Amino acid sequence: MAYKFQLGDAVMSGSLAQGTAISASTSLSGDSLTVGSYGIATAGVLSIASFGANWTNASRTVADLGEITTADINGGTLDGVTIGGASAAAATVTSLSVSDGNITNVGSIALDSITADDGSSFSMGSNWTAASRTCADLGSVTTCDINGGAIDGTVIGAAAVAAGSFAAVVGTTGTYSGVLKTDDATEATTTTDGSLQTDGGLSVAKDAVLGNDVKLLSDAAVLNFGADSDVSFTHVADTALLLNSTRRLQFNDATQYIGASSAADLDIGATTDINIECTTLDVNAALDVEGAATLNGAVTLGNATGDDLTFTGRVASTFDPKTDNSVDLGSSTRKFRAVYAHSIIGADTALDVSTVAAGGTIAAGIDFALISSGNGGTVTLPAISAGKKLYIKLSSSVGDVILAAASGERIQSSGSIRLESTGSAITLVGMDSVDWKIM
């Protein structure tokens, strides 16, 4: 092959047969170094220790540049190149621009920033991880699908608040500076089926407004009132609500109330009246009424003859029977002992009568005694009482009879008197507890 070779001022041309490698201990310089039309033959080798100045291989292709220990590439492009293919090692790149392309098959990349060439966005061709790493500022992410891990110290919607949909939010604690709202309309019938559920207690600092029913589902549930829960209602299973201690239910003001003053007493208080409106009011206990009592309508006192009516007060009104001549005051077997009256007008007096034989005693309740036998025998008078009137008559064909006063009593200042004729009669009146007087 024909070669032109210049070494210093010497120029050689003609045919140069390649034997061994071309080498020089000094610099090779000139406008160009050409070996053949197509470069060194396949079997040839060109060894260059160094270039003394910049050089170019523009518009040429190096089929195999071999192994370059150090390269400072300041321009151009790298096509179809695997960096670190033979021996992977970390590389530092001041700026890496990938125009409409991809970065694939990478191990670890440390970047200060990633910017799309159009200034808008870029995408990852497959899944990637930044495990055990911290991203100081991810910037503004338009769409993000987070399927695991944890979000710490993050305000969602801080720049522009908008509604978000969450299939489920699970967290240890959460703080919301705005309104926490659920639009779900599921009714709550147990502790686990409502639209808002909690496995623990619920603390609310301000008013709670509930649009429908409130259910306390546990037996013995307690509803407390006050800063120190001093008033409470406790559920008594299948029975009642229990108001604690001596607390009261008040109506209108503090003077109207229902409450227990002790473990045994229930108090009902009112400023003026307590009105009970019902068909029948049953009081199955002793009734103690302090103050005036007015009973309107029909009144029945006692429901058995064994019930006692005790009058301590005084009658301050007319005591009239409802129907004239239809009821009795006392009976033939149960009489009033004495009746004290200013006058008795228009009364038919019925007397208790008895027949007594000589040697007998006239009973205490007898008003008229008929002596059936005499002949000098003795009939004893009943015990005297002031105002008692006693009629005594001898029956026909009866001789004299001695009327004797009871022990310690007298008749006309004497212990006895004699009725001397058949059919005679006498009327005695008790003056006091000792003396009978003859009318």
Descriptive account of the structure:
The protein is mostly beta strands and 439 residues long. Among the domains are: 1-67, no CATH class; 353-438, Jelly Rolls. Helix content is 0%, strand content 18%. It has no helices and 17 strands. It has strands spanning 2-7, 10-15, 222-225, 231-236, 240-243, 248-251, 253-260, 266-269, 353-356, 368-371, 377-380, 389-394, 401-404, 410-411, 416-419, 425-430, 435-438. The protein has a six-stranded mixed beta sheet with strand order 9-10-12-16-17-14, with no helix packed on it. A three-stranded antiparallel beta sheet has the order 3-4-5, with no helix packed on it. Residues 24-32 and 35-44 have low confidence and may be disordered.
Give me the secondary-structure topology.
Blueprint: E1 2-7, E2 10-15, E3 222-225, E4 231-236, E5 240-243, E6 248-251, E7 253-260, E8 266-269, E9 353-356, E10 368-371, E11 377-380, E12 389-394, E13 401-404, E14 410-411, E15 416-419, E16 425-430, E17 435-438
Parallel strand pairs: 9-10, 10-12, 11-13, 14-17
Antiparallel strand pairs: 1-2, 3-4, 4-5, 6-7, 7-8, 12-16, 13-15, 16-17
